[in-house]
């Protein structure tokens, strides 16, 4: 059906469905449409098909997406934050400028700063190189296991700070020393985790859904946009929260055994419907290798559990599962072929 | 997911606007309004935040104006305008139709979708493959019943452009239905 006819059909339908239209108006358009139909044999059928198309598009199918979204809204209303959170992430540029400004101030004017009561805080950063897992003991006796390719920063006065604040990039397991008077706060990617004394695992790789899983105690997780927190989601042992960036929503769920989330500490790898892109990232961090693969393969998902095995064994499994070919050249793995099953 | 309800937490909500009405309103408005917010701010996460803010303020007021649809779209537009003021140098904002027409959601290919035989679902799978602006116009027109003129104002485009998108959108659907007649039933 050509554009002119479609315009006519749409005009007719709009007028017909508008209760304020007069009978004469409708009749006029009906007549024009009739004229078009009468010009050719197959047009009656065409018009019928088009009207059916119109009818069948009146409502979108309920895909349930709104439900999740509504649940997030409900949570926000229920937990009614004391002050309405402002969408500060809208000013990333301004924030960055402020940070740079503050840094310059720190560097250029630390003498002036010291005249105030504040002491300059020195931050320490520990990094686990690819292929390595390290154990860090913090000044307050909290213990941290850092997964390969992750880093943690903490202030040297952690033990005496009002709030024990640390920053995490990547994945880590925490055993926090109990000290109710001084909450322990982990900032990572786009979430903030607040505890008193517990053990829990945080996954916060860049460009990946952040996850916090609790083994013991109680944990509060909130969304962190440029330093402004949303209402917190509270977690108990064997519960985890995932941050859905698309819906800007923290989703809480129960897990069978929270310990699975910390098995990376013993070199185990655990994948559950994990996209291959992420699998390769995990592998390259754990084995300190570079993975070069066909991009079309990235959408496949892997569900598998590896004990602390050699990279060869991992690749053999992938070979069998996805029908891939691989070659290893120094520190790079080249993967060819492969299809999802 | 929170299982608790809203009831009781906002003591002064008046009767004409209860939880059910609110949820209903959200369910009806979500498909198009979310797309509209994304269209305006070009960011899924921020679009969600805007949407939530608008609905939270409605909930707090406890009432809604007679023309809820027009009100909600205007509220989202205002919020998006403030958003742009806030992020003056917004590199993500693109006005070019062509740039966005490339982005096609290929979550489900039509042939897969045809297999489920649910005509309405299949049609919406196809509609969701239209370029972003066309799809939004289609939703606003067909689902929310906005007129050409109202859509033109909300999207800051001409009435002719609105009509053109709709006609092309319907032509696209018609063509797809014809191409897949056998499977389509």
TrEMBL record, chain A:
Domain of life, per lineage: Bacteria
InterPro entries linked to this entry: FecR, FecR_C, Ferrdict_sens_TM
Keyword Nucleus found: no
Signal peptide bounds: none
Residue stretches making up the Protein FecR C-terminal domain: 268-335
Domain FecR protein: 128-219
TM stretches of this protein: 90-108
Key words of the record: Membrane, Transmembrane, Transmembrane helix
Gene Ontology MF term list: sigma factor antagonist activity
Pfam families referenced in this protein's UniProt entry, alphabetically: FecR, FecR_C
Name of the protein described by the UniProt record: FecR family protein
UniProtKB/TrEMBL annotation, chain B:
Classification via Pfam families: Sigma70_r4_2
Keyword annotations from UniProtKB, A to Z: Sigma factor, Transcription, Transcription regulation
Every RNA polymerase sigma factor 70 region 4 type domain range: 122-171
Alphabetized Gene3D superfamilies for the sequence: 1.10.1740.10, Winged helix-like DNA-binding domain superfamily/Winged helix DNA-binding domain
Domain of life: Bacteria
Statement: the UniProt record of this protein carries the keyword Cell inner membrane: no
Family: Belongs to the sigma-70 factor family. ECF subfamily.
Name used for this protein in its record: RNA polymerase sigma-70 factor, ECF subfamily
